[in-house]
Amino acid sequence: MTELKNILYKVAINAVVGNTITNVNKIEFDSRKVGQEDVFVAIRGSVSDGHDFIEKAINQGALAVICEKTPDVIVNGVTYVEVQDTQSALAIMASNYYGSPSENLKLIGVTGTNGKTTIASLLYMLFKKAGFKVGLLSTVKIMVDIEEYKATHTTPDSLMINHYLKEMNKAGVEFCFMEVSSHGIHQKRTEGLAFAGGIFTNLSHDHLDYHNTFKEYRDVKKIFFDNLPEKAFALVNKDDKNGVFMLQNTKAKQYTYGLKSYADYRGQILENSLGGLLLKLNDHEVWVKLIGTFNAYNLLAIFGTAELLGLETIETLQLLSDLHSVSGRFEYMISENKITAIVDYAHTPDALKNVLETINDIRTNNETLITIVGCGGDRDKTKRPVMGNIAAKLSNKTIFTSDNPRTENPDKIIEDIEKGVEPQHYKKTLSITDRRQAIKTACQLANKNDIILIAGKGHETYQEINGERMDFNDFEIIKKELKKLNK
């Protein structure tokens, strides 16, 4: 039990009805989970308004209600705390409830359109190899040192974030690397956290179903850097035109990285092949197992972060050379009959372009590049024709297929993608709604030394159709299909 007054510390309060000097059990923002002597926080969401469930929460035993508008009917014995913003209040309360766990480790946030998962995950691997106890909050998984937990969102809700940070405190974790999404920033899930550093990767077309304009999307990302404290560092990609913008108004110490610009952490690609990259990082050469220009940027960010967190340069370079790709991020295999299959999470125009350009840079052009790509349903529709155009233009053959259609008609999604294909590329494209059949067809079309890229789902091991998630693993399916061809 915790005193309500203590978990309200630093929350902007407008009015109180009742007594805050009372012990409460736990905090909940989902009325279905409220139990005896809990605090219910009424959040205004895009689908429902928690204020409509205050009565239900009280009937289930809520002892206190945090809201933006005090109800007209007051229940005797219940404390009502009216605040300016319940999302902000929830984040601050969660941190207070769990004893401000972010202050007991070095928490590094990674934000941007592409590269968040790779950078956060590889930093976790690197610091583990360096002998530290490390935490990870990512799209793919949550790690409390060596204990793994399933991830449900890129940035979890503030209660979950602080719960896992508290578990990290118990496990003696020294560093935690966390993906910070625009949704997470906008919904204030990261408020109340003490970040020791922030990394900006890049910004391109994404989430315009949620953010009305690109400017709004960019400005939300900037809030994260505006809120970094003086003791923290802000490390940004100087080659991205939004990188320097992120640094405006930040109180944190400012650092940059880049391949094209003069930056604090400079990189140069000396060699790029399917075997890996030979890089020059601040005048030091290093061979790494990762592939492509986009990974050169990721590795530069990792190199800079490691140095800013106190690792020696030589040790960092040695550790970088031992890193391997993250699940579903340019994950590849070569079959017995020499067909290369690549699975990548590229689900934005910029990410798809980067992956295809990387493949085209390292191949000899004697091979056929077959790309399988779709777009998610109930998400930003404006990027669909753009991705169709990129896939058709940069591939020898393209198969448009279903991704996670969710509640949308998958054929309609494919029609939207097809609209972006230029006339000269029509004959290079096929549309096969069934994703499994699309993968099978690509394997049948491929000959020795050809390359198949399956883009969009990456690490995901499911396909979501009409609200139902069914097992579906791109990498496992293409492995099986290629194995059949070997027989």
Oligomer: single chain
- Main beta-sheet strand count, sense and barrel state: 11 strands, mixed
Tell the overall outline.
globular
Q: For the largest beta sheet, what order do the strands appear in spatially?
A: 11-10-9-12-8-13-14-15-16-17-18
Beta percentage is 15-25%
Helix content: 25-40%
Helix/strand class: alpha/beta
Low-confidence stretches: none
The gyration radius over C-alpha positions equals 24 Å
Give a count of the beta strands, DSSP E runs of length 2 or more: 26
Tally of individual helices: 15
Q: Mean pLDDT, as a whole number?
A: 94
Rounded to the nearest angstrom, the distance between the terminal CA atoms is: 64 Å
Brief rundown of the structure:
The protein is of the alpha/beta class.
Question: What can you see in these coordinates?
Answer:
This protein has 487 residues and is an alpha/beta fold. 32% of the residues lie in helices and 24% in strands. The chain contains 15 helices and 26 strands. The strands form 5 sheets. The protein has an 11-stranded mixed β-sheet with strand order 11-10-9-12-8-13-14-15-16-17-18, with helices on both faces. Strand 5, helix 2 and strand 6 form a beta-alpha-beta unit. Helix 14 runs parallel beside helix 15. The longest helix is centred in the middle third of the chain and has 16 residues. The radius of gyration is 24 Å and the shape is globular. The chain starts with a strand and ends with a helix. 49% of the residues are buried. The model has no long low-confidence stretch (mean pLDDT 94).
